[in-house]
Give the backbone structure.
Amino acid sequence: MNRILFSLFFGTMVAPLCVAGAAAADYSDGVFIVNEDWYGHQNSTVNFLRPDDPDGEYWEYRVIQNNNPGMEVGCTCQYGAIHDGRLFLIAKQDKDPGASISGGRITVADASTLKIIAQLPLIDPSGAQCDGRAFVGVDSHKGYVTSSNGLWVFDLDSYTITGQVAGSSNPDADSDSSRPNTDPTGSLYHGQSGMAVYTAGKVFAAHQSAGLLVIDPAVDAVVNTISMDFVQEGAGIGSVVLSKDGFLWLSVAPNVNGMGLTLPYLVKVDPVSLECEVIDIPDGIYAPANSWYAWTPDGFCASSVENVLYWNGGESSWFSQSHIYRYDIDNDEFSLWLDLEDDPDNWNIYGCSMRVHPVTDEMYVSMFHSFQDPTYKLVRFDSDATVIREYPMISNYWFPSLPVFAVNGGSSSADNLTDYVARLFPVAGGVSAIGLAGCTLQIFDISGSCVFVQLIRDDHEVVSPSLPSGFYIVRAGSHSLKVRL
């Protein structure tokens, strides 16, 4: 279970660094598992799985420490993502109280060698209380770090925090600064920023007290906010994911108190028009669990191969270890995808540690018996929930968080579509292109005539041609799409 932590260090920012050493192993194809690890005893860790190793040597444990002697990740690391060839690890604090080594709230490593490039002990350069949550890349030069107090601009050239996104702060951040991070009633847990995705030229971030923030990276400011009041008065957001068809999907809580309660709805958001649609979750299907109370990324995720969503759910977010649900967006069908309630060996889903591989569409799920038992395994399923292989682990209180998928030198956290998962998808009035910078986008009418040409300049670009209504074929690079404009 995620621990509510406190900060032990308010220091200055660590300059970018590199660690020399022997020839590094190759981590360009496999699965990273980011672990919270054993709070009070050691810093967080990252394990690496080679799921099809011919010799059965599937696991390599504690790969950050192994490849960076004398260095470690920070304390309660819950989030990892690979962007532009770099692995970004975001921890709540920089050092566990039981650890002897200070790590960082932000750790950046080469995604193929895992050599640490930079570590930052602080997110807010002023030293004010600010615990890490997640990361979203904008381009090769800029990303955002979400935190207990807003989103922060991360310069990916200098590896420095250059400021806070205007309008994203925790409204209670200065109201009770004397309370420690371990106090769940304090401001730290009432206005956090959590999961974020980048699409259609904007960053969309879940904000516990405000709703969905719409951020323009050109000005590093919130330009719109979607409150959850239209779902139910006083409702709050849980998390945000991006589906294959290019729409945003939100999970919903009945309030902003962060105690894990849910509402039986999903919210679909058009990232261009910001139009919202409430989808009722039928009886017998639990809503996506949320975890503002002790933040984790949530189990809510999307397939990059099929237009479907997955999540874990239960009577409340505190009891969501037995069921994974599936929503087929195209067919508007909800179903129970995995049921462990009567598992004879008492295996349970561990928290948010479940994601869908962006290429194979296989689900990777971390499992455990109980919080007092250091026995864990990872289970790999096909899209029909049939077990492909199980990967037992050495005994340790791993408390795993996100799987992060490395795919032949590129990667996706499966929460954010990066430049390594190229695609076209329709949005209102046009087409969104991801990972196709430098390609020429062409649009053909039904007679086969090319009626529109545009060079794609950005990794995430929306093309909105002025064409008569009708069906068209869009092509860019090796990708094509039939759309109705």
Observations:
- Helices lie at 63-67.
- The first strand starts at residue 30 and ends at 35.
